[in-house]
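User: Show me a protein chain along with its predicted structure.
Assistant: Here is one chain, sequence first, then C-alpha cells.
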Amino acid sequence: MLLYLRYFIPIVAMLLTTGLAIAAPPAQTEQCPTLDANNPEQRASLMDHVCFLSAPPGEPAHQANTPEALSADTHWKAANGHDLVFSHTDAVYWVRLNVRNSGDTGQLWYLKLNYPLLDEVTFWQTGNDGTTAIATGDQYPFMSRGIDYRYFLLPVTLGANESRTITIRIRSSGALNVPLSLETPEATIAQSNHLTLVHGLFYGALLVFAAFNLLLFFSSGTAYYFYNAFYMASLGLFLFAMGGFANQYFWPDSTGFANTSIPMLMSVSSLAMTLFGRSFLEILPGSRSDQVFRGLALTSLGLFVMAFILPYNKSIVLSTTVALIIIASLFLIGLVRWRQGYLPAKWYVMAWSGMLAGALIYSLAAFGYLADFLAREIFMQVAVGAQVILLNYAMVQRWRLLNQKLLDVEQNARTNLELKVHERTAQLRNTMRELERANRQLATLSLNDALTGLHNRRHLDNLLPELCAESRRSGQPLTIALLDADHFKAVNDDWGHDFGDQCLQHIADILRRHVKRPRDVAIRFGGEEFAILLPGTGADGARRLCEQILEDLASSRMVTTDGAYVSLTMSAGTATLVPGEDERELFRRADEALYRAKAAGRNRTEQSEAAPSWSTPHGE
C-alpha cells in the first residue's frame, strides 16, 4: 500500500499544479468593455467584459468597503473570457462589470454568481439613479440574499438605453470561485428547473438507497448494510452542504455554522466510508489492513473534533487530504483483496476507481484549481451515483457468494448426516454415563465440607434422624457432641482468614485422629462449630472422647503468619438420646450444654442436664 501511495501523491501534486496553471486568469490591464445586455452573444461571453482586482492584506483596496473608497487609479485586470478562480487566500477580490440596455424598453436580467460557499459578497449597482447595495454571503443570514436561491442572484433592471456599473466585493476564508453569468428571467427559471430535477433525482436516489440498506440491516443484522447506509447518508449530506442547499434549508440563520459544517460533514463521510470498507472487505482483525483502517477511522474522528477548533481554511485542507487518502486506501486495499481471491472486491474496486477520479476533480474545483464548479459538481454526482450502483451490486454479489457457500454447506451436511447422527448418539451415551458418575460425585461432594473434608450440615440433618430412629428401635445409646472453637473471631481478626482456615483444618485433623470407630461421624456444621455423632456410645464415653480432643488441641501449637505460636482451645457440650425424644430436642440439649461450657470458662466439656438411662463407655 505504501508503494501505491508513493505514486498517488505525486500524481495529485501534478494535477494540482496543472489545475492552478489552467485556472489562473491572465494578468492584463485592459479597460473593461461595456456589455450589451440585449445581445445574447455578449451575455454568453460575459467574462470578456469583466475586470477584477486582487487586494492582499495591507493594501488600501483590502480595507475599502465601498467602490467610492477605491482609488481612482486602481489597477483593474481584464478576465479575458476566463472564469475567476482563486485558491485559498486572504485577499479581497473586487469584480466590475459595465452593462447597458440597448433596447427601447426597460428589462430585467439576473446576474448570477454560481458558487454558494462565499463568506461575504457585496453587490453595488451604480447608475443615473444613484447606488444600491446588497450585502450577503455565508456570514449573513440566508435571506439577506433577497432571493431564496442557493446561488447568488442580483436583479439588474435597466431602462431603455440605460447603462450601469456593477461592482462586487468578495471575501472568503476558503477558495474563491466567481463563475458569473447574466441571464434573462426565463433562462434563469429554466436552468433552475433543470438543476432542481437533476439534484432531486440524485439526492432522492441516495436517500432511497440509504433507507433500503438500513432496512436490510434491521432485517438481517449484517453490519456492512448499516455502514453503507451511513456512508450514503453522510456523503449526500456533505454534497448537500457543498451545493449550498444545507445553508438554504437546514441552518439558514446559523451564520457561524455554514463554514464549520463542510469539514465536519467531510470527516463524518470519511469515517463512514472507512467503516464500510473494513466491514465489506472482511478485513481480518489485527492484520496490516485492519491497522490502516483503524488509523484512518481515528484520524477522521480527530478531524471531526478539529472542525470545531481550527479555522475553516485549515480544517478543510486537512479534511480533504484525509478524505482523498482514505479513498485511495480503500481502492488499493480493494485491489489487494481482489488479488487474494475475494470476488466481491472486483466491483468494489470499480466503484472506488470512479469515486477517486470524481473526488479529485471535485476537490480541485472546490479549492480553486479548476474552473466551472457547477460542471464539476455534476461530474461528482455522476461519480457518486455510479459508485452507489456498483457498491450495491457488489453487495448483491457478496450475498450470492455467501448464499452459494451456505448451499454447499447444506449439501455437505446432508451427505454426512447419518454418520454424524451415529457419532452423536455414541457421544450422548458416553455423556449420559459421565453425567451419572458426575451426579454421584456431586452427591458425595454435597455432603462434605470443602475446607476441612469433614461431613457438612446437610449430612448431619440427613443422618441424625436415622440414628435416632435406630437407637429407639435397638435400645442402643446415641450421643451427640457439639464443639466450638474458643475466641475464634479474635484469631481471624488478628491473623486473617487464611490463618483461620488453617486452624479449622488443624481442628479437623485432630477430630479425625480421635473419631476412629467406623460408625462415628465427625461433622463441621458451622464456621468454627463441629459435631460428633456417636451411635452406641453413652454419656461417659462421649465425655471422655471430648476431653481427649480438647486436651490434644490445647497441647498443640500453630505458627501464625508473623512467626508467633498460638494454642487453640474448644468448648464441648454432649447430650444422650432419652426415650420419647426426637433429634431436634437432642440437638437443643447438646447446644445448651455447649453454652454452659462457654459460660463456665471455656476449654471444657459439659453434659446435658437430662440424665440418660444408660452409661455405655465410648469404644465398648
